[in-house]
Request: fold
Amino acid sequence: RRPAVLIGLIGEGVTPSLTPPMHELEGARHGMSYVYRTVDLSRGQGTEEHVRSLFDAARRLGFTGLNITHPIKQTAIGLLDELSENARRVGAVNTVVFEGDRTVGHNTDITGFAEAFADELDDVARDAVVLVGAGGAGSAVATALRGLGVGELIIVDQDAERADALARTVAARTSGGAIRAASLDDLPALLARVDGVVNATPLGMAAHPGTAFDVSLLHERLFVVDIVYRPVETALLAAARARGCRVMSGLGMAMHQAADAFEIFTQEPADRRAMLADLENL
Ligand code: NAD
Reply:
């Protein structure tokens, strides 16, 4: 009989996440006893000390691994024995596996975004791309975009220092085209000349309605990616579609990050098409 798989998701506000059912449904397709539980952190519980105690408890309780999210993706780095190349590059981890007495960190947000882009926008021009949002997800997206061969990556954020810091970090840790920060005021000029724009701000979610920038700046030669996936059709994507832009929603990234983590946890190939269908129906 195969050993049961026990996974946890640790972070703030994780209770409604769709990642647990995505994993459990895929586990069931593999005939596994696969249990995925959420551990919701309250404010102030994102300290290294607290996360260490959760990791120790998870290991003792026989967890196979963990997904971790806001606000501990960076905090956890110091608690790991080993990091995948990707996790080291971005300085953040979203997947942790207990391998014997070693704790190993991976980042499937980066691979998830890259795989979704390869599925949906593989053929688009990418000489210059604007990324709006330099938070946790934005840093994974910036790393992925560099790996996807973007010639010039321009990062903007309402917090100018954060955009600047991300541009410097990604430039130092990855190789590829030019990368720099710009201000929100530069967007009209930038969007008039670049090939694509990616939203990695929370704008477009039910709790953050609207768009991060004025959609009248969109035009049909731009590809538009929104990594927000609840709802799938954000105000930004709707406006982009109406202008005839190539678009990519956040669903593919959400599915691939889960599928990559599933494969890391189980060493078995995930049925990505089925996982996407599940996600669309959840
Ligand atoms: P975060 O809070 O770490 O970062 C958000 C960033 O956006 C911040 O730097 C903030 O200053 C900036 N920002 C907010 N409003 C802005 C505006 N109007 N203009 C410019 N910048 C603005 O959040 P995060 O963890 O990076 O996640 C961002 C969103 O990405 C989430 O809300 C979620 O919807 C989405 N997400 C999707 C996936 C997926 O798999 N599809 C994965 C992770 C996150």
Notes: Residues 70, 109, 112, 132-138, 157-159, 162, 200-203, 205, 212, 227-229, 250, 253-254, 257 surround nicotinamide-adenine-dinucleotide (CB under 6 Å). The chain has a mean pLDDT of 96.
